[in-house]
Structure formats: C-alpha cells, structure tokens
Amino acid sequence: MSSGNEVAGTGRQAEEVFRLCGSEKTLIGQGLRAEVARGAIDSLAERVRGFFSDRQGGPRLVMGSLPFDRSRADYLFQPEAVAMGSRSEAGKAATLPDAVHCTIRPVPAPSAYRDAVAACLEMIAASAGDAEPLTKVVLSRSLELASSHAFDAGNLIRALGRDPSVTVFSTLLPAEADAPHPLLVGATPELLVSRKGAEVVSYPLAGSARRYGDPGADRRSAAVLEGSEKDRREHQAVVDAVFDALSPYCSELTAPDGTTLRPTASMWHLGTRIVGRLKDTETPVAELAGALHPTPAVCGLPRERAAGVIGQLEGYDRGFYAGAVGWADEKGDGEWYVSIRSARLAGRHATLYAGAGIVAGSDPAGETDETSAKFVALLSALGIDEHGRPLREHAA
Ligand SMILES: C=C(O[C@@H]1C=C(C(=O)O)C=C[C@H]1O)C(=O)O
C-alpha cells in the first residue's frame, strides 16, 4: 500500500492549509507537500506510521481532519512548512466581513428537527427493555448559507479568535471534482485527545446552556445547568465512555478537578478534564483518537446503534462535522479536537452545524433552542443572525 501522494504543481506552496489556535500556542501549516493515504479510522495509526517511515523530507508531522463516520476516509496531509503564531495576534486583527447579502436555509427546518428529537425520544423509551438500550443520541442540524461574496476564512478565524476559551481551527478538506479544496473552520471548546510523551489528556463536554448578556440571567442559566439531573446524566455517560476507551492504554487515569462548568463566550457546558499516563509510550495519539472517536458527546450510546439512528433521523451527511481536527508527529505526539462549532466553507457557500444530546427527559423545543445557541459563535463571527440579517452592532 502506498503511504500517500506527493502533491505537485498545486500552487499551494505558501498558502495556509491548516491552523490550530489554542490558548497557549498557534500551529500553522503552510503549503500542501503530500497527502497521507486516505482510509477509515481503524487504520489511521498504521497509515501515519507508514507515511513517516516511507518519506524522509519535510516537517515530521501531519495534520488534517477525521470525518464523523468511522468507516469513511479521513484527510491528513504533510505541510511544506510549519510556523508557530500567537493567539493575541489573531484577536487583535479581528475585522468582520461584510456578510449583509447572505441567505440562510436551515436543513432540516427547526420544526423538522423538533420532530426528529421527538422520534428519537420514542426510540429511547421503546428500547428501555433491550439488553443494550439506546440511552443517548446526539442529533444535529445545519444552516446552509449563500453569500454575495466568497467567505473569507482569514476574517472568520480572526473573529472567532476573540473568544479566548475556544480552540480556533481551519483545515483543508479533500478537493471535490474540479472545485478548489473546501475548508473546515471552527471554534471548538472540546479536546478529544492529546498526547505529549507519556501524558494523555481528554476534555469531554456534554450538558449545555445558553449564555446571556445580562449577568443575572447568565448566572441563573449556569445554575440551572449545574443542578440539572438530565445534564449530569448526559455528561457522566460521556466521561464513563472516555475512561472505558483510554483505560486499556493507561497505567493511571484520573479526573483531578471533577466535573466543572466550562464557559465559552456564548455557551455554558459541563466539562471533565481527564488525565492519564500511558503504559506504553509507543502508543501514538492516532491510536488513542481511533479508540475514542466518536465519543457519546457527538454520537451517543451504544455507539453503533446511536450512529444508525443519526443516519436515519438527521437526513443529511455530517461529513467532517463532529469528527476531529488536529495533528500527529513522528514520535506519536499530537492534539485532536472535536470538530464542532464548525462550518464548511466553499466559495460563496458555507454550511454551519450544531447538535444536542438527546436522553430520556430531553425536551424537543429546548434541544432546538440549544442548537440555535450553538450556532451563535459562528454566526456572530460572520456578523449575522440565524436569519442572515446583519447583527445590529455591525449594521450600517
Ligand atoms: C454536538 C455539539 O456539541 C456537543 C454536545 C453537547 C451537549 O449536547 O450538551 C455539548 C458539547 C459538545 O460535546 C455541537 O456543538 O454541535
């Protein structure tokens, strides 16, 4: 099997092909040097290892994204060059694009999403007596944007970077037919897994509430989330799944701070930072990502059954949304973030995605509102509301 393709004559030598901008550092990939042989997640670690053993030149790391569906092909590449930037630059230069002429089509319509949540709740209830009942399904919906101008990824990245609590990312997606490569751009609060030497970290989130400009309303929203039995249950299912997936690889695995509130600029979340030490430091980050993805934070429980319900009820293809975006180096270190709060940009078209975890006790209208709240980060960085109208602060 070939370990990948040399990318010749694409004119992408100096172009930014990847950016991952966390609180401490920004990793930038410039130019597309070679693509890693594409395949499903089960062979990811082997393909990454093969890539480095077959090729000598270029930076000793690959970057890119994994799709939501474990059986579909990922897209990883080696850049021509790697640069490190700083977060403050990103925030300072923020300018908002002119997105005044933008139409938005919700897919599915919010009413159809509510119906899907109701259907999902019936499936959860009906499975209660099964040997492995369906306990959680994350259902998402999308917004299809058509703008009068091509979407400017650089502007969007800078605007998203104003929220210091998220990791802003941008990565090239595989090219389709004769069209240029689309991009996946987003601002995720959720770490799937990182590995640095023997230390492994995962920071799952589940359980969400909208934030408000009014401090009293904002505090009340957080307090309701912290006190919600439904959200605690939804969160614990994800934490248990992360422990189950990582424990075979780790000699120690703990959640030192327990479950805490994790705010972004627009959302409150319940989060649990999980830290482990590898038994065998030869275990690469790609293998850990393969063991974890997709966690019940973006899929559900049991995993296969929930993925089947998602395919049946969502009615569209998630592609690289709710997958992972990140990098892996030759030593096996790397960082992979859950690719939520994201948009696929292709010229004048963008598709935004947001999902919510459905468990017994979920309310269809409440979950629909939660997805609307999750669109706010991307929409406000684009300067528009959910109907495509310019936000008041940016309107002429
Ligand atoms: C699926 C998304 O978010 C996930 C779902 C959450 C929830 O259901 O509470 C919280 C954080 C994320 O793990 C999304 O933002 O699209």
Automatic annotation (TrEMBL):
One of its GO terms (molecular function) is isochorismate synthase activity. InterPro entries: ADC_synthase (IPR005801), Chorismate_C (IPR015890), IsoChor_synthase (IPR004561). It comes from the Bacteria. Residues 111-374 form the Chorismate-utilising enzyme C-terminal domain. It catalyses: chorismate = isochorismate. It is an enzyme of class 5 (isomerase). Its EC number is 5.4.4.2. Keywords: Isomerase. Gene3D superfamilies: Anthranilate synthase. PANTHER family: ISOCHORISMATE SYNTHASE ENTC. Belongs to the isochorismate synthase family. This is isochorismate synthase. It comes from Aquamicrobium terrae.
